[in-house]
Predict the structure.
Amino acid sequence: VQLQASGGGLVQTGGSLRLSCAASGRTFGRTFNWYAMGWFRQAPGKEREFVAAISWNGAITYYADSVKGRFTISRDNNKNAVDLQMNGLEPEDTAVYYCAADREPGPPRAGAPAYDYWGQGTQVTVSS
């Protein structure tokens, strides 16, 4: 069971980054499309917070108010991958970003405890 996040880096205010999360292993090998997927982030000294989530088939997406209109979550079930396109980045977006998988059917959820599997995180730093 593995979720591998990548694509983080250092960017200036107003810039863009695209994060990717690749799912592999016995759990996801042929069942990735059973899982809703989410992105969360955690800044130093702060709680982990919800960023965006997407349903198993990509039909439903859900965003935190702080990123709505700037970030876009998408998935490719043929590649066992979920992406987060981040535009208009602000210093407040600086955090470690994590992807996560939720095995419950239904609409994507914002609560971290709902997610069963987590990736290792990728650092996003936005300079002012």
